[in-house]
Amino acid sequence: MTIHVRALDLFAMEAALDEARAAADADEVPVGAVLMHDGAIVARAHNRMRRDADATAHAEVAALREGARVLGDRLREATLVVTMEPCAMCAGAIVLSRVQRLVFGAWDAKAGMCGSIGDLVRHSKLNHRPEVLGGVAQEESVRLLQEFFAARR
Questions:
Q1: CB burial of residue 47 (10 Å; 0-12, 13-18, 19+)
Q2: The pTM is what?
């Protein structure tokens, strides 16, 4: 099945990139996420691990938590858009939240669990598998990450 980039995916990715920039400004790894429902952004977040002293404070988890407060069961109709391929923890949260679609920017060859080193979100044994589209605005997502880490070396 071929999955195509939608205009709303690009709109949402721009908002997620804004969140990633806010994370970098706060000295957090620049990853941003937004949750879309019916063409509108209902939640937006960026990494807050340093600020919150919480290893689970990833952008995806924060956006899903806020989205659940706003949408409740309608989270199943939502699209999560994130600037970097989710890790195992975030991939698990995506499956358990049952979002309909996942769109992400940069592939993560070190920890990505949506196609890079594993594919938890589409594992055949799980009872929910979202539609997945990776590589959207990949260049800008990668650039933000590279600049952030280059400045810290």
A1: buried
A2: 0.95
